[in-house]
Amino acid sequence: MNDSLKPPPFPSVVGTTLEAHIWAGMRGTPGATGEFASLLNSVTLAVRIIHTRVRAAGLAGMLGYTGEINVQGEEVQKLDAFANEVLCTVLERSGHCAIVASEELEQVKVFGRSGKYIVCFDPLDGSSNIDVNISIGTIFCVLRAPSGDVQTAAGALQAGHEIVAAGYAVYGSATTLFLSTGHGVHGFTLDPGVGEFFLSHPDVKCPERGNTYSINEGNFARWDDKVKKWNGWIKSESKEHGLPYGHRYVGSLVADAHRTLVKGGIFAYPADRKSPSGKLRLLYEANPMAFLFEQAGGMATSGVDRILDIEPRGLHDRTPLVIGSKLDVEAYRDFMLGRR
Ligand code: AHM
After folding, report:
1. Which of 68, 174, 238, 268 could link 76 by a cystine bridge, Cβ 3.0 to 4.6 Å?
2. Is 276 helix (H, G, I), strand (E, B) or coil?
């Protein structure tokens, strides 16, 4: 057979939509009611709506600021506010979501007690890159709502090991959505003409070791000595240890994490003198990414401890975050423990 007529290497992949993948997961789960699948499909609908607005933002007058300051003390971009509104509205209408927690909301929104799930999200990650056409994204995770008549903010304060699904969308050269429901990580690419996500990256595995490191080196003077020592090591010359690693840093967590998940290596946002607890938020940035990296065979720590075991105290808690290939994250931990 002529090579160009041969089927692609994953014949089952062709034509598998994200929606079909989600429903297939439900059919494989004994006792499933379809509510979880329906909730996930609502998240993907919100992502498709956000995608259309991100793509046309420059034309639709959606760039720039709203003039408001969010709970993090940052100026709110119009697209941030739009993405937040879309997710809240779509999730409320799904009927399956009891509570949402968002980077853009000081308090949780409680939708009612019929919903069985809680969704935590950063509606538009990488705000500083919006106006300069660099990849941005949406990060989310799903938790079970505690049973009982009254849902409160405390319901969202669950450690990451309670997560039942997590994912992120990258609005980049293509729009992709990587999702895990606890059975590995699968990546989907949006066909904008059709308006559907199709399976493009089945069963993603983070390589055991990579060759790039990703960190904002502009913070060097604010790091403690252990981080500085690791940083010196990873860019030192040593053929034997495969060093130096190349440096890559976009400044959007979704983009830096996505590259690290697919190609391997390490992404680190450590605590520093300006951000003594780290910069990234536990509930809707670090936890979803940690869940995905572990599901793909990678690792996620705060430098030493497992991210998914951190007990949150507040909705907007921050944490140092180190994610990536297992051997690379372990090497970082060795430096933090003074073993190197
Ligand atoms: P944001 O939620 O305001 O967009 O901030 C989070 C972003 C992450 O996407 C990214 O990893 C980090 O902040 C970059 O921070 P810095 O500019 O300090 O390197």
Report:
1. 68
2. coil
Let me know whether 179 and 41 are in one domain.
yes
Q: Which residue has the tokens 């259309």?
A: 52
* Domain extent at residue 126: 11-201
Q: Which atom of ligand 1 is nearest to the CA of 255?
A: 9
Question: Where does a domain end: 175, 201, 227?
Answer: 201
Number of structural domains the chain divides into: 2
Residues 83 and 186 in one domain: yes
Q: Is the CB of 270 under 6 A from ligand 1?
A: no
State the closest ligand 1 atom to the C-alpha of 267, by its place in the atom list counted from 1.
11
- 108 in any annotated domain: yes
Q: Which two tokens stand for residue 144?
A: 């079970």
Residue by residue, pLDDT tens for the chain (340 residues) are 565 555 444 444 557 999 999 998 888 888 889 999 999 999 999 999 999 999 887 666 667 777 777 777 777 778 889 999 999 999 999 999 999 999 999 999 999 767 999 999 999 999 888 888 899 999 999 999 988 767 777 899 999 999 999 999 999 999 999 999 999 999 999 999 999 999 999 999 999 999 999 999 999 999 999 999 999 999 999 999 899 999 999 999 999 999 999 999 999 999 999 999 999 999 999 999 999 999 999 999 999 999 999 999 999 999 999 999 999 999 999 999 999 9
In-domain check, residue 206: no
Q: Are residues 186 and 110 both part of a single domain?
A: yes
Q: Is 77 in the pocket of ligand 1 (CB under 6 A)?
A: no
Pocket test for ligand 1, best of 80, 215, 253, 267 (most atoms within 8 A of CB): 253
- Say if ligand 1 is within 6 A of residue 253 CB: yes
The CATH code of the domain that includes 48 is: 3.30.540.10
| 231 alpha carbon – ligand 1 mean position (Å) | 20
Instruction: Give me the helices (H) in 235-307, please.
Output: 253-263, 287-295
Out of 181, 201, 221, pick the residue that ends a domain.
201
Residue nearest to atom 3 of ligand 1 (CA): 127
Task: Using alpha carbons, select from 322, 311, 304, 292 the residue that is nearest to residue 141.
Answer: 292
Q: Are residues 75 and 188 in the same domain?
A: yes
Ligand 1 touching residue 249 (CB < 6 A): no
Strand partners, 246: 212
